[in-house]
Structures are given as structure tokens and as C-alpha cells.
Design goal:
It is a single chain. This protein is an alpha/beta fold. The chain is 41% helix and 16% strand. It starts with a strand and ends in a 7-residue tail after the last helix.
Length: 150
């Protein structure tokens, strides 16, 4: 079951901030990629942002929404899907939740998402002690055959 994650909303929900920094985003990417690594789940993590960049790390894809914003991109992803009922949108945003459900997706709260992955909700102090992404860790991750998508 693919997850579509409202990145800024997840950070805001966990840390109580409305405009996450790049370090906040990196910390969330690391936290989610570590949780997904132990499962067969896939996720698209969508951030508000000026560009429309897309990156993939194993079963996690990170996307910048561009000028339309993350909510619009998330709803479009659900509407374009051949199986919208299989998509789980993760957000605490009421309007986005309604729109995603109307488009056919399931919606869960950030707290429920963290519980599903066997981890308690991140504390207000941050997702991890360090927000830096270690390039050597990513190289080791992709050298492992089980983390490759072909």
C-alpha cells in the first residue's frame, strides 16, 4: 500500500513549526527512509517548494511540489492513480484529508502513521539527534542488494 506523505505537515505536527528548515526536511527524510527500510512499504514524501525536483532513495521518493503546493500535488497523485483506494495519504490537514478522501484515498494522521511503523511520534526536539544526512550511510544503503530497485 503506497503512502503519500504531506512532509511539511508531518514536520509541523511533530515539531510545532509552520515553516520547516532544510535541516528539518533532511531529518524527516532520514527518519522515514530508516522506517521504510525494514518494511515492504513505499512512500512519496511531498514538500512545498519552488522547484519540481524528484529524488528516490530505495522505497522512498521525495518530491517538491512546485508553484501549486504540496496539497495540490498530493490530490493530483490520488486522482491519477488507477487504484486510489490503495493510497494512504498521511496528513493532519483537514482540508487536504477531505480532498484526498473525495478523490478515493484513505487518510491517516501523522500519529497513526508513526504507530504503524512501530515508532512513537517524534518529539518536539526533533526526529533525530542530528539532522545531517551522512553520504557514506547512503552509499552503504545502496550497496546492499535488498535496497535496490530494478
Amino acid at each position: 500500500m503506497p503512502y503519500v506523505l504531506d512532509g511539511n505537515n508531518l514536520i509541523g505536527h511533530a515539531r510545532g513549526i509552520s515553516r520547516p528548515s532544510e535541516e528539518d526536511r533532511q531529518a524527516l527524510v532520514v527518519e522515514i527512509s530508516e522506517r521504510l527500510r525494514a518494511t515492504r512499504a513505499t512512500a512519496v514524501l511531498v514538500f512545498d517548494g519552488p522547484g519540481q525536483r524528484r529524488f528516490s532513495f530505495g522505497s522512498l521518493t521525495i518530491r517538491e511540489a512546485g508553484p501549486g503546493g504540496a496539497d495540490e500535488l498530493i490530490v493530483r497523485e490520488v486522482e491519477r492513480s488507477r487504484s486510489p483506494r490503495e493510497i494512504v495519504v498521511v496528513t493532519a490537514d483537514r482540508d487536504l484529508s477531505r480532498r484526498a478522501r473525495d478523490a478515493g484515498a484513505n487518510v491517516v494522521s501523522p500519529g497513526e502513521f508513526w504507530r504503524r511503523f512501530g515508532v512513537r511520534r517524534p518529539q518536539a526536539s526533533g526526529f533525530r539527534e542530528t539532522a545531517r544526512v551522512d553520504v557514506e550511510d547512503w552509499i552503504k544503503y545502496f550497496e546492499d542488494e535488498k535496497n535496490r530497485q530494478e
